[in-house]
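Posting this for the archive.
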Amino acid sequence: MSGFLQGLKSVDFYRKLKRDLQQELTEASVSGAALSIIAAVIMIGLVAAELTAYLTVQSESRVVLDHFESSSDDTLQVNFNFTFPHLKCDYASVDATNFMGTHDAGLAARVSKIRLDKNGNLVGRHDDNKKELRHTTDEVHDGPETSIALTTDNFEASHHKYAIMIVNFYAPWCHWCQRLAPVWEKSAATIAQKFPGDERIILAKVDCTHQSSEALCIKYRIDAFPTILVFRKDDKGDSQHESYHGERSVPAITQWAEHFMSQLNNEVPKSRTVDANKDGVVDSHNGVGCMVSGLLHVQRAPGMLKVQAVSDSHEFNWETMDVSHTVNHLSFGPFLSETAWMVLPPHIAASVGSLDDRSFTSDQHVPTTHEHYVKVVRHEVTPPSSWKVAQITSYGYVVHSNNIQKAGEVPTVRINYDILPIIVQFHEKKQAFYHFVTNLCAIVGGVFTVAGIIASLMDKSINLMRKKQELGKLG
């Protein structure tokens, strides 16, 4: 056994000086002590830095080609919320097309509209008419014109003369205005017969193309013909004027006008939202702007989301149509949870809603189309396993916006999107433990070796100086 131990000692890499010889064979110095302290401080600093790097979770990214595992993956959800201060909900239409020109490319859609007043405050929910608006086509009015013609000069005087003034803003070239004209005159005559001598209500009309009344139509932002507004004698500067969107027939218009007389007589509650015939369809309501929001499921192909004024019973003046808007929110893919927002890296979270809270304004009386070009990229973020959070999938995008001002151009808001077939993957990158241990050994051994080399050079320099001093060569 003793022989084995002696053989084992022969391979000792770290032979030590005998204790009784240490004092004779080694010598301590002040410079060596100072260098040892410096080396120790450096070792401690480097070890602390290496430990911090080991404990820090870093991310690594890579780009892979996207592919669809099933046909259900061939669609993507688009979430949007836009505010239009000057586009009425009655006309605001949302349409989706793809690169093949297919309309209604939104395979499933859920769109809601909320009417806004001139200050941008919410007025009420808007429900589109589910049935086609009826127009009387065979009405003839042979008698004198009963509705009064208003201009800029006599409008205010008439406004404050009558308790209720219902005004038809029209353009002679408008097809729908031409069809409404005899209905409007006969409705005015019917109201005058039902309330003879009663000057509390009057039906009037304004020709928006005539020089004497152009300023009126600009003031009240009349860009759809015909537009029928209600003016009350007690209106203030910030009053909202409800507009008529009911059936264009003499019975419907007269019944609607009689409802205002009932309000004056306190027979029905005063309200700016009127369902005169109580059929569940609102005949008139107020609101000059619209908040359009919803979601669409579209094909994963280049396409376009388009918002513009559309109506099957109005003609539009595109010169004054204003589609200025604020993008409250635009994103792609499912809505992210609160946890997902906290886990996403800041630069990815910012790209998820790159257009959010940005406003775009049209020049007055210049038809302006707003185009937004969007490049959509899918991101997959895999949090550290210790967080116990599932992989997060988000869709970020970069956007370039541009205004188009061209005579004859229909003012539109277009979101041109291109869903790129790539995935940017982010995952945890943590240093292996054996790398950490190896680096620690390298730090300790390296600093110790370098300090030893420096100590050796210092000793040799000091000895050389001493010898020169003994020989008197230092001067």
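The longest strand covers residues 412-429. Residues 26-57+432-475 form one domain.
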